[in-house]
Amino acid sequence: MNVSSEQPGTGRKLDAGHVVAIGWVLCAVALVERVPRLTSGHRYLLCHASPALDHLTLTALALVTAAGVAALGGAIMMQSKDSYRPALPVVWLVVVVVLLIAADGVDAHGEALAAQLSATPFTEAACDYAPQDYIATPGWFFW
Predict the structure, then answer these.
(1) Sequence-separated (6 or more) residues with CB below 8 Å from residue 66
(2) How far apart are CA 134 and CA 103, in angstroms?
């Protein structure tokens, strides 16, 4: 069964496969932009470990993962005759985009924290470990 929604006036159909494909492409791009070697961003030298910064990084990755799961979940729901509505594909794509915007917001907060942590002067001997190079990932919405 292929459930689809025809957009008024266009004659085009948006089906479950499109929701998964669009959602996963957006998530893949969001993950790629978070790989420091593949993108450029502001660099911060951190002298001390920051559990808060680690937590923010994991939260942003969890939000990107949740967006991918939402794209798949939306497509599965679209296959059900009982829960399908014509606007459902758009609603699920909006959910995916909102989760990716939230991930960018968390990353922006992480960058602000990294900037604050790196602003304090230090000597290499006073560091907890070899200074860590933190690279802020460019986002689509908060850069």
Answers:
(1) 99
(2) 17
**Token pair for 127:** 């560091």
- 89 compared with 1, residue with greater pLDDT: 89
Q: Which sign does the torsion angle of CA 15, 17, 20, 25 carry? A: negative
| Nearest-angstrom CA–CA distance, 78 and 1 | 10
pTM over 0.85: no
Q: What is the dihedral of CA 2, 78, 89, 91, to 10 degrees?
A: 170
Contacts of 23 (CB under 8 A, 6+ apart): 67, 68, 70, 71, 72, 74, 92, 93, 96
**Per-residue pLDDT band at 88 (split at 50, 70, 90):** confident
**Both tokens assigned to 140:** 């689509």
8 exposed, middle or buried (CB, 10 Å; 0-12, 13-18, 19+)?
Answer: exposed
What is the pLDDT at residue 42? 80
Determine the straight-line distance between the first and last CA of the chain, rounded to whole angstroms. 42
Q: Give the pLDDT band of residue 99 (cuts 50, 70, 90).
A: very high
